[in-house]
Write a structure and sequence with these properties.
The chain is mainly alpha-helical and 453 residues long. It has a single domain, classed as Hydantoin permease. 76% of the residues lie in helices and 0% in strands. It contains 18 helices and no strands. Helix 5 (90-104) crosses helix 17 (379-416) and helix 16 (344-364) packs across helix 17 (379-416). Bound molecules: tryptophan. Tryptophan (TRP) binds next to helix 1, helix 2, helix 11 and helix 15.
Length: 453
């Protein structure tokens, strides 16, 4: 990694599985387990979920393939990739790097909460299903000063250790065991959740769309969440795919990863929402939803089994979050290496220091600094809003404009089919989506979401 050059010789993923796991590890994270359920809860349930699924199908798969193609074609991280292909589009890389900085500036705060909850489960602080008690514990944690900062620093330190090791040793190893384990735990919890009394109402809320709840804002929330959850619109997948060998099948990878990611998000929704409804938690409460609901589920599983599941759950969530945040950090780190000329150690040190400072501000904005607002949002929400609802969708829109109109059909065809050696029957459909449907669709949702149309 230290010797990465702009001309190639990039270290590559050790195996095909290595890339799938790393990319899926990037996609599956707090976005699925923490953000998706609470956004579904706050945005009216079924209508949000359906728009989300529509965005994954129409935009997600296609954009995933575009980013993979650009990354592997150039063997460069995001800024360099555009500079090499068409200088005028370097600004897409800039949007991506801005988004990466913003997300690195609050994601580790939530990662820190997960680590904190692991320890709270360990010491038995959470063994209750009482909504007030659990709400109080969460509120006390996030509005505190030193405790959340402490956990954020712990979480960030784990990231630094992994990212400093470089792509092969760190990222690949971390993703291999955790993903299947997380999936199994979620599956068991989903079964527990839907068999709770009154869970049916929750399932109805989650899957039966109430179209009266649909608005421009809800659509933008769903679209932004699709980008966030799939790690798209920022060049993260470009950066990962730049380590990919020329023989890999991009088409099948670009189908698998969104499919896995969406499955995990829906599964988390099925764990959280029915249980929240059954226990009488407010599903519209926002970021605390997962952290108050899940301990209540564990409490119904008995003191020993509940505790074991609680420990496994928060450990796996923290690890899923780690495989995502290392991919975020990697974008920032690649920026410092490729653009500023830092070596890897210095790049990691700089990125994580900036990240920690932003995270401290984001964390305090839910407590001591809650009176500081930007456009009516606290700092935490502001970082999230600008990244998820502005940078990622616009980044994605420009990527598809670039691929559809400037990079062009021939280049795209050669790259995604490995010079014609891989069959891709839907190529024309994909390219039509890239050229027309996706840019127009994103623009429409974006403008209606911010209230312009
Ligand atoms: N997708 C991750 C999650 O759901 C977060 C993430 C990692 C991300 N890399 C990204 C979001 C790049 C946007 C862009 O938790």
């Amino acid at each position: 990694m230290e010797k990465e050059t702009k001309t190639g010789n990039r270290e590559q993923f050790g195996s095909k599985l290595g890339f799938i796991l790393a990319a899926a590890g990037s996609a599956v994270g707090l976005g699925n387990i923490w953000k998706f359920p609470y956004l579904a809860g706050s945005n009216g349930g079924g209508a949000f979920v359906l728009v989300y699924l529509l965005c994954v199908v129409v935009i997600g798969f296609s954009l995933m393939l575009m980013e993979m193609a650009l990354g592997r074609n150039t063997q460069l991280s995001t800024m360099g990739a555009y500079r090499k292909l068409d200088k005028r589009f370097t600004f897409i890389g800039v949007i991506g790097v801005v988004a990466a900085f913003l997300i690195v500036g609050y994601y580790p705060v939530v990662g820190g909460w997960s680590v904190a909850y692991f320890f709270k489960t360990l010491i038995g602080e959470l063994s209750t299903s009482n909504p007030e008690t659990l709400g109080g514990i969460f509120g006390a944690l996030v509005s505190g000063t030193w405790a959340p900062i402490f956990w954020t620093v712990v979480y960030m330190a784990l990231n630094v250790i992994i990212v400093i090791g470089g792509i092969q040793k760190g990222i690949e190893k971390a993703s291999k065991v955790m993903m299947p384990a997380l999936f199994i735990v979620l599956l068991i919890l989903a079964v527990r959740s839907v068999t709770l009394p009154g869970a049916g109402e929750g399932l109805k809320f989650l899957f039966a769309p109430d179209w009266s709840k649909l608005s421009g804002q809800v659509m933008l929330a769903a679209m932004g969440q699709a980008f966030f959850s799939l790690s798209l619109g920022m060049g993260c997948i470009i950066t990962y795919a730049s380590y990919l060998g020329k023989k890999e099948n991009l088409v099948s990878n670009s189908l698998n990863i969104p499919a896995i990611d969406t499955l995990v998000a829906i599964l988390s929704g099925v764990v959280i929402i029915p249980a929240a409804v059954s226990f009488g938690f407010e599903v519209t409460q926002g970021p605390g939803l997962v952290f108050v609901t899940v301990p209540a589920i564990f409490a119904t599983m008995g003191p020993v089994i509940g505790r074991i599941f609680g420990l496994m759950f928060f450990l796996l969530v923290a690890l899923a979050a780690l495989t995502s945040s290392i991919s975020l950090l990697e974008v920032v780190v690649a920026f410092f290496i490729d653009e500023i000329g830092f070596n890897r150690k210095k790049a990691v040190a700089t990125s994580s220091t900036i990240g920690i400072i932003m995270c401290i501000a984001a964390s305090l904005s839910m407590g001591a600094w809650s009176n500081i607002t930007l456009f009516g949002m606290n700092i935490f929400d502001f970082f999230d809003y600008v990244a998820s609802y502005i940078c990622l969708p616009l980044g994605g829109m420009f990527v598809s404009i670039f691929v559809g109109w400037f990079w062009g059909k021939k280049n795209a065809y050669d790259e995604v089919t490995n010079e014609g050696t891989i069959k891709f029957a839907l190529f024309d459909v994909w390219f039509f989506l890239c050229k027309w449907v996706i840019p127009i669709g994103i623009l429409f949702v974006f403008l209606s979401g911010v209230g312009i149309i």
